[in-house]
Automatic annotation (TrEMBL):
This is Putative membrane protein YkvI. Keywords: Membrane, Transmembrane, Transmembrane helix. InterPro entries: YkvI-like (IPR038728). The keyword Transcription regulation does not apply. The chain crosses the membrane at residues 7-23, 35-55, 76-96, 108-126, 138-156, 176-194, 203-228, 248-275, 287-308, 314-332. It comes from the Bacteria. The keyword Ion transport does not apply.
Amino acid sequence: MVGGFRWIGLIVATMIGAGYASGREIWEFFGHESGLAILLFTIMFIVSCSVILTISYEMKSENYLPVLQTLVGKRFANVYDWGILLYLFTMLFVMISGSGATVNMFELPYSIGVVLIITLLLAVIPYGMDGILSINRFLLPMLIVGLAVVLIVFIFQEKVPLLYHYVEQSNWASSIPFTSLNVVPLIAVIGAIGKEIKSKKEIYVASIGSGLVLGFISYMYNISLIHVSDQLFFYEIPLFAILNGYPVQMFFIMTVLLWFAIYTTAITSLFGLIARVKGYFKMNKGMVGVVLILAALPFTLVGFSNLISYLYPLYGIVNIYVLAMILLFPIIRRANERQI
């Protein structure tokens, strides 16, 4: 049970990155008539976690590549391996843009947020990942708890209906790209912990627990955003529409936590990129980091909400094949065992 709860924390932290925590990812895929979509996402997510963790446990894997190869075959694994590289680069410039949008809420120029995060990204490169991951392990639980508290208080204060148009559920299909968007980073993270899983009970606890937590937060977030949907046009980060009217202290705390979520997402993406491409450059990792940030900088001019609007659905569609292979894996395995 203890091991299972440990993995719940890892899985939820992987999912609740800056795009999710800001509300922009939720609103992009869900919105009105999405109760069934969130239920389907919860079910598919539980199954996906269970399959990935089981393969990782059986293979005692230390990185995600063997798990990815088992799911989609070596040929497609190479394609999606490069896809992960592209995904990390995308996350880098989306998060730089997100920093500008967050700082902008304090009526400071967008460019200050961009310069701030780039400066801190460059400053942390020589020190490696250990320091930032330690901060991440401390701040992400605070962000998750704070987000849950804000949503619950908002729903009760504003008397938000818990069932929005429960008869009309036309948006159910959005559950597929939303789940597929998140399974590849999920493989990258939990596909590397196979040697640390002690028993299959941990897998059941982690899969069901994380699915229920994320399903609950996603639903609460979605109905809150529906309630303020007429204001979302004015906010690049939808969470701020919910925080509007809260005490300034709560607004400040959640903004700082969100900014740190953006920063840690950016730094983990940057380090992942540096580790993968440094062999192609005859430079030290600091200079490789500078090159990558400079390459990402022009894309930040598009804006945080626009980047998520275009790129997240695209990645959701591209990753549908991986999701399908994960969901079909237990059936294919059972059929192969019967043939033997």
